[in-house]
Protein backbone atom coordinates (compact mmCIF):
# COMPACT_ATOMS: atom_id res chain seq x y z
CA UNK A 1 0.00 0.00 0.00
CA UNK A 2 1.09 3.59 -0.51
CA UNK A 3 3.18 5.32 2.12
CA UNK A 4 2.16 8.77 3.29
CA UNK A 5 4.13 11.38 5.16
CA UNK A 6 2.53 14.03 7.34
CA UNK A 7 3.95 17.11 9.00
CA UNK A 8 2.22 18.56 12.05
CA UNK A 9 3.41 21.43 14.20
CA UNK A 10 3.31 21.60 17.98
CA UNK A 11 0.86 23.90 19.70
CA UNK A 12 1.17 25.66 23.01
CA UNK A 13 -1.99 25.98 25.06
CA UNK A 14 -2.93 29.51 26.09
CA UNK A 15 -5.70 27.92 28.17
CA UNK A 16 -4.53 24.48 29.25
CA UNK A 17 -5.98 20.99 29.12
CA UNK A 18 -5.04 19.44 32.45
CA UNK A 19 -7.22 16.46 33.29
CA UNK A 20 -9.46 13.87 31.71
CA UNK A 21 -13.14 13.21 32.33
CA UNK A 22 -12.66 9.92 30.42
CA UNK A 23 -9.19 8.40 30.37
CA UNK A 24 -9.85 5.78 27.68
CA UNK A 25 -11.45 8.16 25.17
CA UNK A 26 -9.39 11.18 26.26
CA UNK A 27 -12.31 13.50 26.94
CA UNK A 28 -10.97 16.54 28.85
CA UNK A 29 -12.50 18.27 31.86
CA UNK A 30 -11.99 21.71 30.28
CA UNK A 31 -12.00 23.24 26.83
CA UNK A 32 -8.56 24.51 25.82
CA UNK A 33 -7.23 27.18 23.45
CA UNK A 34 -3.86 27.07 21.68
CA UNK A 35 -1.48 28.60 19.20
CA UNK A 36 0.23 26.29 16.68
CA UNK A 37 3.94 27.06 16.27
CA UNK A 38 5.95 27.20 13.06
CA UNK A 39 9.37 26.34 14.53
CA UNK A 40 8.57 22.98 16.19
CA UNK A 41 7.11 20.01 14.32
CA UNK A 42 7.04 16.26 13.69
CA UNK A 43 7.33 14.43 10.36
CA UNK A 44 5.82 10.95 10.31
CA UNK A 45 5.67 8.39 7.49
CA UNK A 46 3.30 5.43 7.67
CA UNK A 47 3.04 2.44 5.35
CA UNK A 48 0.79 -0.59 5.85
CA UNK A 49 2.79 -3.59 4.62
CA UNK A 50 1.16 -6.98 3.93
CA UNK A 51 2.83 -9.88 5.77
CA UNK A 52 4.57 -7.60 8.27
CA UNK A 53 4.20 -9.62 11.53
CA UNK A 54 3.99 -6.61 13.89
CA UNK A 55 3.80 -2.84 13.83
CA UNK A 56 7.27 -1.30 13.77
CA UNK A 57 7.62 2.23 15.09
CA UNK A 58 10.88 4.14 14.82
CA UNK A 59 11.29 7.56 16.45
CA UNK A 60 14.45 9.53 15.68
CA UNK A 61 16.21 6.36 14.52
CA UNK A 62 15.29 4.23 17.57
CA UNK A 63 12.70 1.46 17.74
CA UNK A 64 9.99 2.46 20.23
CA UNK A 65 9.04 0.07 23.03
CA UNK A 66 6.86 -0.01 26.12
CA UNK A 67 4.08 2.51 26.68
CA UNK A 68 5.34 4.90 23.94
CA UNK A 69 5.03 2.05 21.44
CA UNK A 70 1.59 1.09 22.78
CA UNK A 71 0.24 4.64 22.34
CA UNK A 72 1.13 4.57 18.63
CA UNK A 73 -0.26 1.04 18.15
CA UNK A 74 -3.49 2.20 19.84
CA UNK A 75 -3.96 4.87 17.13
CA UNK A 76 -2.99 2.42 14.35
CA UNK A 77 -5.63 0.01 15.70
CA UNK A 78 -8.29 2.74 15.55
CA UNK A 79 -7.30 3.46 11.94
CA UNK A 80 -7.38 -0.25 11.03
CA UNK A 81 -10.87 -0.61 12.49
CA UNK A 82 -12.12 2.40 10.51
CA UNK A 83 -10.51 1.15 7.27
CA UNK A 84 -11.52 -2.45 7.91
CA UNK A 85 -7.98 -3.81 7.46
CA UNK A 86 -5.69 -5.90 9.69
CA UNK A 87 -2.36 -5.12 7.96
CA UNK A 88 0.51 -4.06 10.21
CA UNK A 89 2.40 -0.85 9.61
CA UNK A 90 5.86 0.66 9.60
CA UNK A 91 6.01 4.10 11.14
CA UNK A 92 9.04 6.36 10.88
CA UNK A 93 8.90 9.60 12.81
CA UNK A 94 11.27 12.51 13.32
CA UNK A 95 10.75 15.16 15.97
CA UNK A 96 11.94 18.68 15.25
CA UNK A 97 11.18 19.46 18.88
CA UNK A 98 12.67 18.01 22.09
CA UNK A 99 10.74 14.85 23.00
CA UNK A 100 8.87 14.72 26.31
CA UNK A 101 10.32 18.01 27.59
CA UNK A 102 7.14 20.07 27.99
CA UNK A 103 7.34 21.48 24.47
CA UNK A 104 4.31 19.50 23.25
CA UNK A 105 6.01 16.76 21.21
CA UNK A 106 2.97 14.54 21.80
CA UNK A 107 0.77 17.17 20.10
CA UNK A 108 2.73 17.30 16.83
CA UNK A 109 3.47 13.56 17.01
CA UNK A 110 -0.10 12.30 17.22
CA UNK A 111 -1.50 14.88 14.78
CA UNK A 112 1.11 13.78 12.22
CA UNK A 113 0.40 10.10 12.97
CA UNK A 114 -3.37 10.57 12.56
CA UNK A 115 -2.81 12.27 9.19
CA UNK A 116 -0.26 9.83 7.77
CA UNK A 117 -1.86 6.62 9.10
CA UNK A 118 -5.38 7.47 7.95
CA UNK A 119 -4.21 8.37 4.42
CA UNK A 120 -1.94 5.29 4.24
CA UNK A 121 -4.95 3.12 5.15
CA UNK A 122 -6.97 4.63 2.30
CA UNK A 123 -9.20 6.82 4.47
CA UNK A 124 -10.13 10.40 3.61
CA UNK A 125 -11.05 11.89 6.96
CA UNK A 126 -12.35 15.42 7.50
CA UNK A 127 -10.29 17.71 9.70
CA UNK A 128 -12.81 17.22 12.52
CA UNK A 129 -12.40 13.45 12.22
CA UNK A 130 -8.61 13.81 12.13
CA UNK A 131 -8.82 15.92 15.28
CA UNK A 132 -10.86 13.19 17.04
CA UNK A 133 -8.38 10.53 15.93
CA UNK A 134 -5.34 12.57 17.00
CA UNK A 135 -7.07 13.17 20.36
CA UNK A 136 -7.12 9.41 21.03
CA UNK A 137 -3.31 9.42 20.85
CA UNK A 138 -2.72 12.56 22.92
CA UNK A 139 -5.33 15.15 23.86
CA UNK A 140 -3.26 18.17 22.88
CA UNK A 141 -2.79 16.66 19.39
CA UNK A 142 -6.45 17.35 18.60
CA UNK A 143 -5.51 21.04 18.27
CA UNK A 144 -2.41 20.52 16.07
CA UNK A 145 -4.58 19.56 13.08
CA UNK A 146 -5.17 23.30 12.72
CA UNK A 147 -2.86 26.24 12.22
CA UNK A 148 -2.82 29.46 14.24
CA UNK A 149 -5.31 29.71 17.09
CA UNK A 150 -7.48 26.65 17.79
CA UNK A 151 -9.98 25.60 20.42
CA UNK A 152 -10.62 22.06 21.61
CA UNK A 153 -14.21 22.04 22.78
CA UNK A 154 -14.23 19.50 25.54
CA UNK A 155 -17.47 17.74 24.49
CA UNK A 156 -18.84 14.72 26.28
CA UNK A 157 -18.11 11.76 24.00
CA UNK A 158 -15.85 10.36 21.27
CA UNK A 159 -17.70 12.15 18.46
CA UNK A 160 -18.13 15.64 19.93
CA UNK A 161 -14.75 16.21 21.56
CA UNK A 162 -12.51 17.77 18.88
CA UNK A 163 -10.82 21.00 17.93
CA UNK A 164 -11.86 23.83 15.62
CA UNK A 165 -9.82 26.60 14.03
CA UNK A 166 -10.34 30.08 15.49
CA UNK A 167 -7.94 32.05 13.26
CA UNK A 168 -5.62 29.97 11.08
CA UNK A 169 -3.68 32.77 9.36
CA UNK A 170 -2.40 35.01 12.09
CA UNK A 171 -1.22 38.23 10.46
CA UNK A 172 -0.73 40.30 13.57
CA UNK A 173 2.29 40.38 15.83
CA UNK A 174 2.33 37.58 18.40
CA UNK A 175 5.18 35.16 19.10
CA UNK A 176 6.26 32.71 21.78
CA UNK A 177 9.87 33.33 22.71
CA UNK A 178 10.77 29.86 23.97
CA UNK A 179 13.41 29.60 26.65
CA UNK A 180 14.90 26.11 26.83
CA UNK A 181 15.71 25.45 30.48
CA UNK A 182 16.07 21.69 29.99
CA UNK A 183 15.44 19.68 26.82
CA UNK A 184 15.72 16.28 28.51
CA UNK A 185 12.68 14.01 29.10
CA UNK A 186 10.60 14.91 32.15
CA UNK A 187 10.25 12.50 35.07
CA UNK A 188 6.46 12.69 35.27
CA UNK A 189 4.86 12.61 31.82
CA UNK A 190 1.76 14.72 31.12
CA UNK A 191 -0.62 11.78 31.26
CA UNK A 192 0.55 10.67 34.70
CA UNK A 193 0.86 14.21 36.09
CA UNK A 194 -2.64 15.31 35.14
CA UNK A 195 -4.22 12.06 36.33
CA UNK A 196 -2.57 12.43 39.71
CA UNK A 197 -4.05 15.94 39.98
CA UNK A 198 -7.55 14.77 38.97
CA UNK A 199 -7.40 11.94 41.51
CA UNK A 200 -5.92 13.75 44.52
CA UNK A 201 -6.20 17.58 44.27
CA UNK A 202 -8.96 18.74 46.67
CA UNK A 203 -9.29 22.01 44.69
CA UNK A 204 -9.51 20.37 41.26
CA UNK A 205 -13.20 21.10 40.61
CA UNK A 206 -12.63 24.78 41.39
CA UNK A 207 -9.81 24.83 38.81
CA UNK A 208 -12.08 23.17 36.21
CA UNK A 209 -14.88 25.69 36.79
CA UNK A 210 -12.51 28.63 36.66
CA UNK A 211 -10.63 27.39 33.56
CA UNK A 212 -13.85 26.76 31.63
CA UNK A 213 -15.03 30.27 32.53
CA UNK A 214 -11.82 31.73 31.02
CA UNK A 215 -12.66 30.31 27.55
CA UNK A 216 -15.19 32.93 26.32
CA UNK A 217 -12.91 35.74 27.51
CA UNK A 218 -9.97 34.24 25.60
CA UNK A 219 -12.05 33.83 22.42
CA UNK A 220 -13.09 37.49 22.60
CA UNK A 221 -9.50 38.58 23.20
CA UNK A 222 -8.28 36.59 20.15
CA UNK A 223 -11.09 37.97 17.99
CA UNK A 224 -10.13 41.52 19.02
CA UNK A 225 -6.36 40.87 18.60
CA UNK A 226 -6.19 42.07 22.21
CA UNK A 227 -2.61 41.05 22.94
CA UNK A 228 -2.59 42.16 26.58
CA UNK A 229 -5.79 40.33 27.44
CA UNK A 230 -4.56 37.14 25.73
CA UNK A 231 -1.31 37.38 27.69
CA UNK A 232 -2.97 38.09 31.02
CA UNK A 233 -5.41 35.21 30.66
CA UNK A 234 -2.72 32.81 29.45
CA UNK A 235 -0.27 33.60 32.25
CA UNK A 236 -2.94 33.34 34.93
CA UNK A 237 -4.23 30.05 33.51
CA UNK A 238 -0.72 28.58 33.32
CA UNK A 239 0.19 29.52 36.90
CA UNK A 240 -3.16 28.18 38.11
CA UNK A 241 -2.49 24.87 36.33
CA UNK A 242 0.96 24.59 37.88
CA UNK A 243 -0.51 25.44 41.29
CA UNK A 244 -2.75 22.36 41.00
CA UNK A 245 0.36 20.17 40.83
CA UNK A 246 1.37 21.46 44.24
CA UNK A 247 -2.12 20.62 45.53
CA UNK A 248 -1.77 16.96 44.50
CA UNK A 249 -0.65 14.15 46.79
CA UNK A 250 2.23 13.62 46.41
CA UNK A 251 2.82 17.22 45.41
CA UNK A 252 5.02 17.79 42.37
CA UNK A 253 6.16 20.62 40.14
CA UNK A 254 7.53 20.84 36.61
CA UNK A 255 8.97 24.30 37.32
CA UNK A 256 12.58 24.59 38.42
CA UNK A 257 14.53 27.45 40.00
CA UNK A 258 15.50 28.58 36.49
CA UNK A 259 11.84 28.55 35.37
CA UNK A 260 11.02 30.90 38.26
CA UNK A 261 13.93 33.22 37.45
CA UNK A 262 12.40 33.61 33.96
CA UNK A 263 8.82 34.03 35.25
CA UNK A 264 9.98 36.78 37.63
CA UNK A 265 11.99 38.41 34.85
CA UNK A 266 8.84 38.52 32.71
CA UNK A 267 6.93 40.16 35.58
CA UNK A 268 9.74 42.71 36.01
CA UNK A 269 9.83 43.54 32.29
CA UNK A 270 6.10 44.14 32.49
CA UNK A 271 6.59 46.60 35.34
CA UNK A 272 9.03 48.38 33.03
CA UNK A 273 6.26 48.74 30.45
CA UNK A 274 6.84 45.77 28.12
CA UNK A 275 3.88 43.65 27.00
CA UNK A 276 5.25 40.21 27.93
CA UNK A 277 3.60 37.20 29.59
CA UNK A 278 4.80 33.72 30.56
CA UNK A 279 3.27 30.31 29.95
CA UNK A 280 4.62 26.85 30.79
CA UNK A 281 3.38 23.38 29.88
CA UNK A 282 4.27 20.14 31.64
CA UNK A 283 7.98 20.90 31.81
CA UNK A 284 10.43 23.57 33.02
CA UNK A 285 10.69 25.47 29.73
CA UNK A 286 9.11 28.93 29.70
CA UNK A 287 7.45 30.47 26.65
CA UNK A 288 7.34 34.25 26.69
CA UNK A 289 4.25 35.52 24.87
CA UNK A 290 5.58 38.65 23.25
CA UNK A 291 5.69 40.90 20.18
CA UNK A 292 8.52 40.79 17.61
CA UNK A 293 9.38 44.46 18.28
CA UNK A 294 10.36 43.55 21.88
CA UNK A 295 12.53 40.49 21.08
CA UNK A 296 15.88 42.28 21.38
CA UNK A 297 15.02 43.84 24.76
CA UNK A 298 13.79 40.52 26.15
CA UNK A 299 16.91 38.68 24.97
CA UNK A 300 19.23 41.26 26.52
CA UNK A 301 17.45 41.01 29.88
CA UNK A 302 17.44 37.22 29.69
CA UNK A 303 21.13 36.85 28.79
CA UNK A 304 22.08 39.20 31.58
CA UNK A 305 20.64 36.81 34.14
CA UNK A 306 21.02 33.49 32.33
CA UNK A 307 23.93 33.82 29.87
CA UNK A 308 23.83 30.19 28.71
CA UNK A 309 20.15 29.69 28.14
CA UNK A 310 18.98 28.65 24.62
CA UNK A 311 16.10 30.50 23.00
CA UNK A 312 13.92 30.02 19.92
CA UNK A 313 11.46 32.61 18.67
CA UNK A 314 8.36 30.66 17.67
CA UNK A 315 5.79 32.26 15.40
CA UNK A 316 2.26 31.09 14.44
CA UNK A 317 2.41 27.94 12.32
CA UNK A 318 0.26 25.99 9.85
CA UNK A 319 -2.05 23.03 10.28
CA UNK A 320 -1.51 19.41 9.27
CA UNK A 321 0.09 18.86 5.87
CA UNK A 322 0.12 15.50 4.06
CA UNK A 323 2.32 14.46 1.19
CA UNK A 324 2.59 11.15 -0.63
CA UNK A 325 5.64 9.32 0.68
CA UNK A 326 8.17 6.86 -0.69
CA UNK A 327 8.12 3.19 0.22
CA UNK A 328 9.70 2.56 3.60
P1 LIG B 1 5.43 16.55 25.69
O1 LIG B 1 5.54 17.70 26.61
O2 LIG B 1 6.65 16.40 24.83
O3 LIG B 1 4.16 16.55 24.88
P2 LIG B 1 4.26 14.17 26.87
O4 LIG B 1 4.55 13.50 28.18
O5 LIG B 1 2.91 14.72 26.68
O6 LIG B 1 5.40 15.29 26.66
O7 LIG B 1 4.49 13.19 25.68
C1 LIG B 1 5.72 12.58 25.42
C2 LIG B 1 5.45 11.23 24.80
O8 LIG B 1 4.85 11.41 23.51
C3 LIG B 1 6.69 10.42 24.51
O9 LIG B 1 7.13 9.74 25.65
C4 LIG B 1 6.16 9.46 23.46
O10 LIG B 1 5.37 8.46 24.07
C5 LIG B 1 5.21 10.34 22.67
N1 LIG B 1 5.85 10.89 21.47
C6 LIG B 1 6.53 12.05 21.32
N2 LIG B 1 6.93 12.21 20.05
C7 LIG B 1 6.53 11.12 19.37
C8 LIG B 1 6.61 10.71 18.00
N3 LIG B 1 7.19 11.49 17.06
N4 LIG B 1 6.03 9.55 17.65
C9 LIG B 1 5.40 8.79 18.56
N5 LIG B 1 5.26 9.12 19.86
C10 LIG B 1 5.82 10.28 20.26
C1 LIG C 1 0.25 20.96 29.97
O1 LIG C 1 -1.92 16.15 25.54
O2 LIG C 1 0.39 15.71 26.41
O3 LIG C 1 0.62 20.62 27.65
O4 LIG C 1 -3.59 13.52 26.45
O5 LIG C 1 -2.30 12.35 28.22
O6 LIG C 1 -1.28 12.67 25.96
P1 LIG C 1 -2.23 13.22 27.01
O7 LIG C 1 -1.57 14.59 27.51
P2 LIG C 1 -1.04 15.86 26.70
O8 LIG C 1 -1.23 17.01 27.81
C2 LIG C 1 -0.93 18.34 27.54
C3 LIG C 1 -0.87 19.12 28.80
C4 LIG C 1 -0.37 20.54 28.63
C5 LIG C 1 -1.49 21.50 28.35
C6 LIG C 1 -2.06 21.51 26.95
O9 LIG C 1 -1.34 21.25 25.97
O10 LIG C 1 -3.25 21.83 26.81
CO1 LIG D 1 2.19 16.24 25.52
What is the secondary structure topology, with strand pairs?
Blueprint: E1 4-15, E2 20-22, E3 27-28, E4 32-48, E5 56-59, E6 62-63, H1 66-83, E7 89-96, H2 105-120, H3 127-137, E8 149-153, E9 162-167, E10 175-180, H4 190-200, H5 204-223, H6 227-247, H7 257-271, E11 277-280, E12 286-290, H8 295-305, E13 310-314, E14 321-324
Parallel strand pairs: 5-7
Antiparallel strand pairs: 1-4, 1-14, 2-3, 4-7, 4-8, 5-6, 8-9, 10-12, 10-13, 11-12
The structure holds adenosine-5'-diphosphate (ADP), ligand DP6 and cobalt (II) ion (CO).
Please provide a written account of the structure.
By secondary structure, this protein is of the alpha+beta class. It folds into two domains: about 5-170, Ribosomal Protein S5, domain 2, CATH 3.30.230.10; about 175-315, GHMP kinase, C-terminal domain (Alpha-Beta Plaits, 2-Layer Sandwich). Helix content is about 40%, strand content about 25%. The chain has eight helices and 14 strands. The strands form three sheets. Strands 1, 4, 5, 6, 7, 8, 9 and 14 form an eight-stranded mixed sheet that branches. It has a four-stranded antiparallel sheet with strand order 11-12-10-13. A two-stranded antiparallel ribbon has the order 2-3. Strand 2 (about 20) and strand 3 form a beta hairpin. The model has no long low-confidence stretch (mean pLDDT about 95). The structure holds adenosine-5'-diphosphate (ADP), ligand DP6 and cobalt (II) ion. Cobalt (II) ion binds next to helix 2. Cobalt (II) ion (CO) binds next to helix 2.
Amino acid sequence: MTAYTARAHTNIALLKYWGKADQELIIPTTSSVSLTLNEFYTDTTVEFIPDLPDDEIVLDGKLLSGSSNQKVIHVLNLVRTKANITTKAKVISTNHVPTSAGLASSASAFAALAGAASKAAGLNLTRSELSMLARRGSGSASRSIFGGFAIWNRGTNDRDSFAHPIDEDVHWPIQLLTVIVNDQPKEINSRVGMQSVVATDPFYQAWVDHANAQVPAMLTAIENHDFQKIGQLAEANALQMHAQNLMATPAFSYLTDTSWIIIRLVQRLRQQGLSVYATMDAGPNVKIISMPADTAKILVALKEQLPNVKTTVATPGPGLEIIKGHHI
